Amino acid sequence: MPNSQLAFTVRKSRADGATDDGHAMKQHGKQHAVAPPPISEATIHPRRYFDASPTFQHWNKVTCADVHALRSESGFQGQGIYFHLNHPIQFIRVVGLLVEIQTVAGGKYTLLTLDDSSGECLVLKIKSRDLRQSNEEYPSNTEIDNVDVHVSLGHTTVLLNSAPLQIGHVVKAKGTVDFFRNKRQLDLKRLFLVPSTNAEAQAWSETAKWKRDVLSKPWRLTQDARDKVDKDILRQTQKERDHARRKQDWSRKVEERRRRHDEKAEVKRKKLDTIYNAGALKGSHIISAPWD
């Protein structure tokens, strides 16, 4: 075979190969575009999806040690949002034995220390209301309606549903995570007395079930669930826009009615002025000063 013909054959073969490779690369690229890599089960989902989680809007039944083990994640500091695996958590429920009661900051806060035998204790913080600067009536002198705190001669008495709370009582507490001197505590929102050992066993059973059924595995958010949340957000956004537009239209109509009313009133005033001034003497509208 002549060299020129051989060279042509080689070039054609390479060109055909390049065409096939290019086609294969395009097909490979299309496959990647259609099927993105799956999201890790431990992925922290965007904030807009948190309401779809089984933990974010619920009281999470955990132990004191679990509260201290919650993680902070970048982008969520200062928002009261913490994480167990990839579960977003803001509301906590704990059950335990009351081992200490103290008042600090001149009576502004009352601290209850809870021990649930998990290896960690947890402080429950109660905020007192400043009733001296308010004329309103409240059911209690704290921010928890069924909890009152009285301090006399350095002794603190905590009343739960009007009954004194004692060291050794078992209580059920609900609140949000707070910090004091880099130590986690619970900003108390609700407090209940656990009346019996059966009730305590039931509470611990609820905690075990919640940890087993919910917290033991990562939160998996399906694409259908994502799409539903996104549609709900778009629907709510459109609803808010429509409301804002209707409010603007209403304000514009009110302003237009006010303007027309003022114009009619001005026309009426001018007509009355003309009628009243029709028979007046020339220059009678001028009032001379006494010294003129």
UniProtKB/TrEMBL annotation:
It is found in: Chromosome, Telomere. Keywords: Chromosome, Telomere. Residues 79-132 form the CST complex subunit Stn1 N-terminal domain. InterPro entries: NA-bd_OB-fold, Stn1_N. One of its GO terms (cellular component) is chromosome, telomeric region. Pfam families: Stn1. Residues 12-37, 230-268 are annotated as: Disordered. It comes from the Eukaryota. Residues 13-24, 230-266 have a biased composition (Basic and acidic residues). This is CST complex subunit Stn1 N-terminal domain-containing protein. It comes from Hortaea werneckii (Black yeast). The lineage of its organism: Eukaryota, Fungi, Dikarya, Ascomycota, Pezizomycotina.
